[in-house]
Amino acid sequence: MTQLATLPGVRAERDQTAVATPVRRRRRLGPGKPIRFGAAIGPVLLLGVWSIGSATGWLDPRVLSAPWTVVTTTGDLIADGRLQSNLLTSAQRAFVGLGLGIALGTVLALLSGLSRFGEAVLDGPIQIKRAIPSLALLPLLILWLGIGESMKITTITLGVFVPIYIHTHNGLRTIDSRYVELAETVGLSRWEFIRRVVLPGALPGFLLGLRFAVTGAWLALVVVEQINSTSGIGYMMELARTYGQTDIIIVGLVLYGVLGLLFDGAVRLIQRKALSWRRTLAD
């Protein structure tokens, strides 16, 4: 049989068969390799459309100021110190509300996720709060807390803690039960179980909730700063609306958008570093 396979005619026929049979390339079903600086492509395209529309007159400057007008206005606001002062006030509100919301949502998720009794007591009311937009509570919060900083920070906190709770609680409930059985088998204490099993298992859900929480914090901040405020980016925009200063309003909107994009990018970077052990389509 071996000698037959080495005959010239048989070998030539085999080679022709191999040539005639095309090699099928395997299709890539994933999204492909990450694009360097891909996150900047969308904003750059949006800026390009905005610039072209303003330059050609398609966009009325009374409705939407040109990008170069916004840049000039930003320089004027920086020169007289208004932008820095209002930005500092807004950042303080956002950070305080975000920190309180993250702490509250995480604690409630742990109490509810690690205990059936805690879930029975906490999950229902939080799901009710989830169905009620935080901004719908503003009239009640104003009656309770007035229009000062307490009301603003509370509104931001309420907009933050729900996504933190929802996604962290879901992360806790989706931990593989085999890990729990293994922890019981090796005799882990309650604290060791939380540190070695619960926290790593809930981390992906927590980080996903953190992305939604950052967005929720800025959304709530935009609204509360336009309610009888005397400082902040929202106050600056509301004052500009009174005087018909479209360029200043656009400066505030761009600033909110850039800050939100930067915060989201920071959370995504933390997510990639903390979850580097996972292989996902994002890699």
Name the beta content range.
under 5%
Estimated structural class: mainly alpha
Topology order in helix (H) and strand (E) letters:
HHHHHHHHHHHH
Helices, by number, come to 12
**Major β-sheet, in short?**
none
Mean pLDDT: 83
Oligomer: single chain
Overall outline: flat
Describe this entry's structure for a reader.
With 283 residues, the protein is an all-alpha fold. The chain has a domain of 159 residues. α7 packs across α8. The protein is flat and about 70 Å long. The two termini are 50 Å apart.
Key phrases:
about 280 residues, about 75% helix
Summarize the structure.
With 283 residues, the protein is mainly alpha-helical. The chain has helices at 2-5, 8-20, 41-55, 67-79, 82-113, 116-131, 138-145, 149-173, 177-186, 190-224, 233-242, 246-274.
Secondary structure elements and pairings:
Layout (H helix, E strand, L loop, with lengths): L1 H4 L2 H13 L20 H15 L11 H13 L2 H32 L2 H16 L6 H8 L3 H25 L3 H10 L3 H35 L8 H10 L3 H29 L9
